[in-house]
Amino acid sequence: MKRKCQDYESRLPDNTAMKQQQLPAFRLQLSANEILSGFFAIGLFCLGMGIILLLSAKSIREVEINYTAKCATCAKLREDATNFDKECNCSISFYLPQKMEGNVYLYYKLYGFYQNLYRYILSRSNIQLVGTDVKDVRNCAPFKTSDNGLPIAPCGAIANSMFNDTIVLLYNFNSSTHIRVPMVRTETAWWTDKYVKFQNPTFQNLSSAFAGTAKPPNWPKPVYELDEKDPGNNGFVNDDFIVWMRTAAFPNFKKLYRRLHRIGNFTEGLPAGSYSFIINYNFPVGRFQGQKAVVLSTLTWSGGSSLFLALAYLVTGAVTLLASFSMMAVHLKLKERKTFFLQ
Amino acid sequence: MWRWVRQQLGFDPPHQSDTRTIYIANRFPQYGHYTPQKFIDNRIISSKYTVWNFVPKNLFEQFRRVANFYFLIIFLVQLMIDTPTSPVTSGLPLFFVITVTAIKQGYEDWLRHISDNEVNGAPVYVVRSGGLVTTRSKNIRVGDIVRVAKNEIFPADLVLLSSDRLDGSCHVTTASLDGETNLKTHVAVPETAVLQTVANLDTLIAVVECQQPEADLYRFMGRMTITQQMEEIVRPLGPESLLLRGARLKNTKEIFGVAVYTGMETKMALNYKSKSQKRSAVEKSMNTFLIIYLIILISEAIISTILKYTWQAEEKWDEPWYNQKTEHQRNSSKILKFISDFLAFLVLYNFIIPISLYVTVELQKFLGSFFIGWDLDLYHEESDEKAQVNTSDLNEELGQVEYVFTDKTGTLTENEMQFRECSINGTKYQEINGRLVSEGPTPDSSDGNLSYLTSLAHLNNLSHLATSSSFRTSPENGTELIKEHDLFFKAVSLCHTVQISSVQTDSIGDGPWQSSFAPAQLEYYASSPDEKALVEAAARYKLLHILEFDPDRRRMSVIVQAPSGEKLLFVKGAESSILPECIGGEIEKTRIHVDEFALKGLRTLCMAYRQFTSKEYEEINRRLFEARTALQQREEKLAGVFQFIEKDLILLGATAVEDKLQDKVRETIEALRMAGIKVWVLTGDKHETAVSVSLSCGHFHRTMNILELLNQKSDSECAEKLGQLARRIREDHVIQHGLVVDGTSLSLALREHEKLFMDVCRNCSAVMCCRMAPLQKAKVIRLIKISPEKPITLAIGDGANDVSMIQEAHVGIGIMGKEGRQAARNSDYAIARFKFLSKLLFVHGHFYYIRIATLVQYFFYKNVCFITPQFLYQFYCLFSQQTLYDSVYLTLYNICFTSLPILIYSLLEQHIDPHVLQNKPTLYRDISKNRQLSMKTFLYWTILGFSHAFIFFFGSYFLIGKDTSLLGNGQMFGNWTFGTLVFTVMVITVTAKMALETHFWTWINHLVTWGSILFYFVFSLFYGGILWPFLSSQNMYFVFIQLLSSGSAWFAIILMVVTCLFLDIVKKVFDRQFHPTNIEKAQLTETNSSIKCLDSMCCFSEGETACASVGRMLERVIGRCSPSHVSRSWSASDPFYTNDRSILTLSTMDSSTC
């Protein structure tokens, strides 16, 4: 059948691939071989990944010490908010049977603390924290202003509830010699948080920059006295503060507190032996029946001990292989009739 | 101004009186009591909106849609109460959807405005203050005298005053109104017909009284009172003096008429009705699903609210020291808080109702419908017609048809009449090679050779019978015989309404017959194709009266005066309407012959005549005049007079013309049956004719047991017969049954025994209804529609008489045939030939159905995936309404990240080769009864959505929630990273799921699928890479980049995507192995018909040059596509093989590696 295609008078539709729905196309049509080999490949890949992850998870050393019960006296003291100015220290010793090699990270961990409540997450002022306007407290309810009407800096519920226990790790070289394990505070917060998202207002003097603002009600001292020794760690750019301000997704969470400074005895990591934590107990958890813990952990290149990921890979791999075997059985049984498997 | 406001608001007062009085040229009486009637102006408004009311009216229209209204409510709730998500998240998509729809509707309305303005601004000539003034069409007022020239369209409904002819007649064609292409003669009253100049018209003092506007095109009653020399002359006005707006003046140089109906009150405007909204089955199930999801949404919100309060009963959770309430929150009332909490949850989960579903569906339908018009296979070369889509709302309904109701003439047949046989005075003659030959020995006639009638051959070819020579009698024949034949052919040639229009000359002479010697320049207009075929142009007869055809009488007649002076009545019509009135002639023999003709599938007409004495004629003339000028009940009176005239006839004979079957009708009907579609033929023909056509077109088989329900006279008889038929069907259900019903029996059966009748019908594989009136056709369809199974019906027809059934059926298809355009215009789809139905249903219908069904299911699926993690997260944040995702992600998920793959899928998907679909009509059964949208599949998709959501959420929860550090440097992630992880897995999974559903991978599919994922990553990097100065929350700053810098996160993403799809793939594989559907089996058989995966990305078609260059670059970069692909592309000069896939699978392409 010969058709005139250039006849503009006629209503003959254009003979293009698009209009005739004949675009060159690949028809997804998977044969049994393709499907089965794909499944076997995925199954094997998952198993392999699972084993690798399992091994790397196994290589991680982790110590967690829950000190809620162990510091019962301090905890009781903190139940009563009027005792805020009373110091309370608590020492917990433990024994490390195996040395922790490589970088060791010190975390604090809270149980039952909901940092993901809607009003709580909202209650912060990014404009204030980036140093543009110290007096911007718009979203900070219910911690906007102090009783005498001054805007709070840093305002909001998150900042107000900042974790303020101090944790010191001692290495008990022998029964009488206690060496303080060297820890560094740097690189505990995201780089971008520390250097972009959180900035002090620009003034020659930090305390004058915060003039006309009040400290958060729960804080013992104003923000410009967080670390008076290190100006790079004072005010809003305090590492502990920044870490706290990144709200956790779930009620049980841990936050990075310090890193091991690998010098002297600790070049290789933490040697085996007995240690003790000296904790300056300030943060009250009893009122919401929460718990506090300290965690010491080593890491691999992909992060902490993710046993779950390893197991998930193993299970998926196993199930995939199982499915592929059963599919192969079905396929062999019905081979005479069917050539294609999927689509 | 006030009037305008009233009009806009529709407050126009109802007309007080039953008639309107029009003073011609607005010359009101100078004295006497009179109240001027108010008439509207001549503006035609087909547009819906004006500049002023567009915004409010369009918004109102749009918010009448449930989904839009729902989102408006959500938006308002967000504005009013303190909610977790910003109003932007639902406001922006809503704004987007509303804007897109408004732009589309505004554009359509703008086009209507343009055409309105063109019509309203057209120049017209109006007689005013003694001169001819040119003005705009919209300025015509009732009472104005309007001049219309040849080939112009009448700007309003006019009463004809005068034309350039002395008798005041003119010819018009009403093709654009009712699709009839014949010329209609309209006449002016004699008193005004002489006023042929403007000056003369200026002296006219007359009043027209007529009925108020009504929609019926063929009814007009009025009278004109003309004051001449202080004397009032009253003349009746009928439809023949009314020139309708939209009709076109033909063969007449100019006319003058007075406007009686203007603007929206013209019959054309009253007949313009916005097409009734047909809703497809898919849309109905879509609404059901929406309601189900609404219930899910509300129950989720209620559960959350209740749990929130159970939780908060404990004080430590209600107000821990670190999250104290504000004064305001403490003081607000409990009930108010409860309600606002419920609303907040509603807002939080509201995305489960997919807002963009409607807009995507609309876009898909609108764009997708182009493919039908573009299809070369639906293009008919001879008539140069392509398929036409009048509504895009019903595309998918084409894949759901269970009953096809088809007209016969013009739909199954060509509607090209060919003269075959005739019976004259009891003798049968056959047309053989242009000669009429007596058929077999005819004992009645002494000499049976009638070959002198040769020139009657090919009656449809008018030039052959243009002369009166056909009546030249041979001398050797007996005069008695000749007389009968002579009369027969006189009847054939005189009794018609055929008009011949000469293109060359403006004047038509004093009759149609004289100019017929120049056949090449003639145009023929006839009100029925039979007549056109039988026209004979030779007469020296004076036409006295025409008794027009009407469907009740089923006959027409003319009264002529022979040259000898005797007055004769010639009648022709259906045999059932002629034979009972006959008192002379060979009635019995003719009846037998007519039945024989009908058995051969020929269309028959009977001829009869009657001679009047002059006294009889006098009376007839008087009664006719009285009836024609009656103001009241004119139609009834006319019918009475006709009845009086058309009796005591003498039968002359019968003619038989053949209507050829269209190409491939048998194959198409066979294919429809194989597809499980029941085909009913509804026709106005005699039952014998209809049955024989049915047999020849494969509708009835020889092996079928044909049941008949004919000529039922009474209810009880009909019931009894129906009972019998039902019994017979029950007794032998092995063989197929066909049912023949005629119109009268049908109306009896439908009146009292609907249920029984439907029972019988449902058990018959073929049903034929003959002798059907147009409204009966529609009624049959309505009956089937409302029967318990609620089947989807399709009606296909070509004539104005099929319009009612086309509009009644779920899908109406018009054939663009010879009987005008009315069916095509009122249909949902119009095609040129019946055979195209198979491609329209089996290929286009099937594709559209699969596409839209998947579209709907997928939309619900992806929104379940989207919102369920949000719901689950509430269990971990004390139901504090904290969102899992950032507001921007919430907003863009449906409109950016996941919208394009599904849209492109729903436009391009071909789950199976169109050829296979066309050749295997049984595949159509696989999608019947809305199977893809059944509760089972819906449940499957929903459960799939929930399970995927659980995998995303808990997978991420066990990864992050178990407080492991995922970064190599020991730093921790926060809640926003967790949400982003879930969201990333979700976007990838949901897109991959779409990829899994796609069978047909063109380069566009590749582009949008991988492009969507890529876009998500690029967008997230960009969005998270900057501290946006105008956003108060900087939640997402560097969150995505941090997430991607974690190895564990990558492993988790891969694992979760694999796990999600794994379940689905395994299910698909086992389904396919154990319960393969026919479609899946058919997919196996098409081998070697596809091209390699990468090729589909590389090989671009010629139309997409911009992309092609990118593609070629890509090819060079990848270096995989061999040069042969580049050279091979589609071009217009390619030899055209209809849908032949072989060109797509050149061997070089197959051998290339991917």
Automatic annotation (TrEMBL), chain A:
Q: Give the domain of life.
A: Eukaryota
Give the main localization category.
Answer: membrane
Question: Where does it reside?
Answer: Membrane
PANTHER family found in the cross-reference section = CELL CYCLE CONTROL PROTEIN 50 (PTHR10926), CELL CYCLE CONTROL PROTEIN 50C (PTHR10926:SF1)
Q: What organism is recorded for this protein?
A: Capra hircus
Q: Which UniProt keywords apply?
A: Glycoprotein, Membrane, Transmembrane, Transmembrane helix
What is any one of the record's Gene Ontology cellular component terms? plasma membrane
Which GO biological process entries does UniProt record here?
phospholipid translocation
Its family remark reads: Belongs to the CDC50/LEM3 family.
Q: Please state what the protein is called.
A: Cell cycle control protein
Q: Which residues cross the membrane?
A: 35-55, 303-330
UniProtKB/TrEMBL annotation, chain B:
- P-type ATPase N-terminal domain location: 35-90
- Which EC numbers does the record give? 7.6.2.1
Entries under Gene3D superfamilies matching the protein: Calcium-transporting ATPase, cytoplasmic domain N, Calcium-transporting ATPase, cytoplasmic transduction domain A, HAD superfamily/HAD-like
Q: Where in the cell is it found?
A: Endomembrane system; Membrane
Q: For this UniProt entry, what's an example GO CC term?
A: recycling endosome
Q: Which residues bind ATP?
A: 407-409, 531, 549, 572, 603, 683-685, 771, 777, 801-802
Binding of Mg(2+): at which residues? 407, 409, 798, 802
Superkingdom in the source lineage? Eukaryota
- Which reaction equations make up its catalytic activity? ATP + H2O + phospholipidSide 1 = ADP + phosphate + phospholipidSide 2
GO MF, one annotated term: ATP binding
Q: What UniProt keywords are attached to this protein's entry?
A: ATP-binding, Magnesium, Membrane, Metal-binding, Nucleotide-binding, Translocase, Transmembrane, Transmembrane helix
Q: What is this protein called?
A: Phospholipid-transporting ATPase
What is the native source organism of this protein? Capra hircus
The gene behind this protein is: ATP11B
